[in-house]
Amino acid sequence: MSEAGHSASGEADYDAIVVGAGFAGAVAARELAAQGRRVLVLEARDRIGGRTMVGTFMGRRIELGGAGVHWVQPHLFAEMQRYGFGFHEAPLANLDKAYMMLSDGRVLDVPPDTFDREYNAAFDRFCARSRELFPRPYAPLDNPEVLALDAVSAHEHLHSLGLNELQRASMNAELTLYGGAPTTELSYPSFVKFHALASWDTYTFTDSEKRYHVAGGTHALCEAILADARADVRLGAEVASVAQGEAGVVLTLASGARFSASIAVLTLPTKVYPDVAFEPPLSAEKQRFIENAEMCDGAELYVHVRQNLGNTFAFCDDPNPFNAIQTFAYGPELGTLLKITLGRQSLIDIEDIDAVAAEIRKVHHDAEVLSIAPYNWARDRFTKTAWSSYRKGWFSQYKAMAAPEGRLLFAGSATADGWHEYIDGAVESGIRAAREARRFFENPG
Ligand SMILES: Cc1cc2nc3c(=O)[nH]c(=O)nc-3n(C[C@H](O)[C@H](O)[C@H](O)COP(=O)(O)OP(=O)(O)OC[C@H]3O[C@@H](n4cnc5c(N)ncnc54)[C@H](O)[C@@H]3O)c2cc1C
């Protein structure tokens, strides 16, 4: 290569290189190929799917990353429709038991109807202004008041509402889970936007986060999208540097291999960008966003318990390490599989079965934990954060991360206008980046 983007013959290897084969990358690759472009996908891992990951536990398929999906997530739903994927319903509805672990460790055994009513009341109050603040949720910064409120933390807003103990604790557990950090850090309007996206309706929102999975698994859906791209895909291809010049881009892998193209679409999780060398460096605005905006310290864990606990749900308020403990499957022979979501994995070692069992027994006193299936996203070097959550003051800056820089286009769920903590946001961002690419190719100047 003599100059960024040119091989010795002067021909770039590809029209576009997509970095990352999660949902954002798979969709961007397919859309670029549909435009007639020659596309290469470079993925650091030896699998596709990124922050969606399917495993098996006790003979069942489990989603260790992004899983909850809903038809109010239009980009993802369109993909499910296109490739013929339906919805698989997780237990959640018709709970036998509901629990609330308060911040001091006390556990309330709450009748499920009361739990639902109080939690929904808290949610309604927290998001009471969602329609007013986000009349068009896909243009989330149109209302100038959102920009001002971005400096307000979820904690500050929650404590201004005069809620009762159960309402405040359940809502704080939910917000800790979403923020992946203490709620004093989470941007208040960034969370309210999700309520607006769920048609300004609390029940629909709750269904959208916990109730439905992709039947057949997220992996199969991601595979279907990527197969449709008919792109060259290289797994185990960790991009170490990205150089752009007048003629194109050159991406160099950790192995030393180099590929050139006219443009690159980057879909890296935000916190991973500092591990890639950019020449010239990324803009100061982007670098500030990368350093400051995201904070999610989350992880996911499945637990097999000998006893049949029935259909249960527990919220655990910060600083208890598990924020949500939900029955995933149960029966007389199986016992119970619990799915646990943690906003703050650093509060516990999720690979330590004794520590996990002790925590479970605070809610389910006699539970005998037989085995666990943890995955720690915050410690995964190709993720570093779990889902994308915005620190207060940084939600209003997300467009800095999405903005193209020369021949580099940026996708990934954190850059989405809509469901930024979700698979839907990843799909949305891949479509947007491909649209930007089309504009670039039509008018390269
Ligand atoms: C535990 C957990 C629970 C979640 N729950 C939900 C949920 O219920 N519902 C929902 O919709 N969403 C959920 N999410 C969020 C959702 O999974 C993500 O928003 C979405 O999958 C992100 O997709 P992406 O393509 O933007 O990024 P990613 O999926 O992270 O894709 C980025 C890709 O880039 C690759 N990469 C990184 N560095 C390099 C490099 N140097 N070179 C080449 N490749 C590289 C990574 O390996 C990865 O494959 C959850 C996420 C987690 C972790």
From TrEMBL:
<feature type="binding site">
    <location>
        <position position="239"/>
    </location>
    <ligand>
        <name>FAD</name>
    </ligand>
</feature>
<protein>
    <submittedName>
        <fullName>FAD-dependent oxidoreductase</fullName>
    </submittedName>
</protein>
<dbReference type="GO" id="GO:0016491">
    <property type="term" value="F:oxidoreductase activity"/>
</dbReference>
<comment type="similarity">
    <text>Belongs to the flavin monoamine oxidase family.</text>
</comment>
<dbReference type="InterPro" id="IPR001613">
    <property type="entry name" value="Flavin_amine_oxidase"/>
</dbReference>
<dbReference type="InterPro" id="IPR050703">
    <property type="entry name" value="Flavin_MAO"/>
</dbReference>
<keyword id="KW-0560">Oxidoreductase</keyword>
<feature type="domain" description="Amine oxidase">
    <location>
        <begin position="23"/>
        <end position="436"/>
    </location>
</feature>
<feature type="binding site">
    <location>
        <begin position="43"/>
        <end position="44"/>
    </location>
    <ligand>
        <name>FAD</name>
    </ligand>
</feature>
<dbReference type="InterPro" id="IPR002937">
    <property type="entry name" value="Amino_oxidase"/>
</dbReference>
<dbReference type="InterPro" id="IPR036188">
    <property type="entry name" value="FAD/NAD-bd_sf"/>
</dbReference>
<dbReference type="Pfam" id="PF01593">
    <property type="entry name" value="Amino_oxidase"/>
</dbReference>
